[in-house]
């Protein structure tokens, strides 16, 4: 999960660079999830065709709702171009709430359908469809926005699809299946410390004392939580 948070912060840094050059956030979300779908859907049918449970219409509806919170709402809130701190904070709070709902809902789905790669594949597929509609409306007067330039825009889309969706989503889904949604959510604050470090190294941001103290507190909290989880597992093992 530490690697996942590093990949997530890397995606945020790249997307900021791409959008500062004029890339539409709507186009970015659609293209990245479409590419992830092209990678994941064939893989799910090739590698899980023998052990994958059958797909039903109610299950597909659950996948659709899952993508609504995890992609359509969350990603569009995260990559919004709001410059006002209050509005931006509200968007990020909405994104965090969507992620929490996504983690909990995914844990419930995994109990009846334990195929992580299939869930992520349909999750990206439905997310692409959901985001394509508002994107087409938003960019209807700017058809050139759908043309990817072979520079940071293309790199950002490929990175987002491969590392931001395929690797990150599959890893998070697997951890939710094995450890539960709380385990995944526990590592989210670590992204703040990683983002601070990457901002200083790659973007030339100023390192403040408060940022260092916050990073130390976050790391200590994660270590404390891990130690508590280990002690609980030892306690259950001794009882058994």
Automatic annotation (TrEMBL):
MF annotations from Gene Ontology: transmembrane transporter activity
Ranges for domain EamA: 87-224
Residue spans crossing the bilayer: 26-47, 59-79, 85-105, 117-137, 157-175, 182-203, 209-227
Family: Belongs to the drug/metabolite transporter (DMT) superfamily. Plant drug/metabolite exporter (P-DME) (TC 2.A.7.4) family.
Signal peptide location: none
Recorded topology in the membrane: Multi-pass membrane protein
Subcellular location: Membrane
Family annotation (SUPFAM superfamilies): Multidrug resistance efflux transporter EmrE (SSF103481)
GO cellular component, one term: membrane
InterPro entries the UniProt entry points to: EamA_dom (IPR000620), EmrE-like (IPR037185), WAT1-related (IPR030184)
Protein name as annotated: WAT1-related protein
Keywords associated with the record: Membrane, Transmembrane, Transmembrane helix
Top-level taxon: Eukaryota
């Amino acid at each position: 999960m530490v690697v996942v948070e590093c990949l997530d912060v890397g995606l945020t840094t790249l997307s900021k660079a791409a959008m500062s050059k004029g890339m539409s956030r709507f186009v970015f979300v659609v293209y990245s999830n479409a590419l992830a779908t092209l990678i994941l859907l064939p893989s799910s049918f090739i590698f899980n065709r023998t052990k994958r449970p059958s797909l039903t219409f109610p299950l597909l509806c659950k996948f659709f709702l899952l993508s609504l919170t995890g992609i359509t709402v969350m990603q569009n809130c995260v990559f919004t171009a709001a410059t006002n701190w209050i509005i931006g904070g509200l968007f990020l709070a909405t994104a965090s709430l969507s992620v929490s709902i996504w983690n909990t809902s995914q844990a419930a789905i995994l109990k009846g359908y334990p195929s992580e790669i299939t869930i992520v594949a349909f999750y990206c597929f439905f997310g692409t469809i959901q985001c394509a509609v508002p994107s087409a409306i938003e960019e209807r007067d700017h058809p050139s926005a759908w043309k990817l330039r072979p520079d940071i825009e293309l790199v950002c889309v490929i990175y987002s699809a491969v590392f931001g969706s395929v690797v990150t989503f599959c890893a998070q889904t697997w951890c939710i299946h094995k450890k539960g949604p709380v385990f995944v959510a526990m590592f989210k604050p670590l992204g703040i410390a990683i983002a601070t470090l990457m901002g200083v190294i790659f973007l030339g941001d100023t390192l403040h004392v408060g940022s260092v103290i916050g990073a130390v507190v976050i790391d200590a909290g994660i270590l404390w939580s891990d130690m508590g989880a280990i002690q609980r597992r030892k306690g259950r093992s001794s009882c058994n």
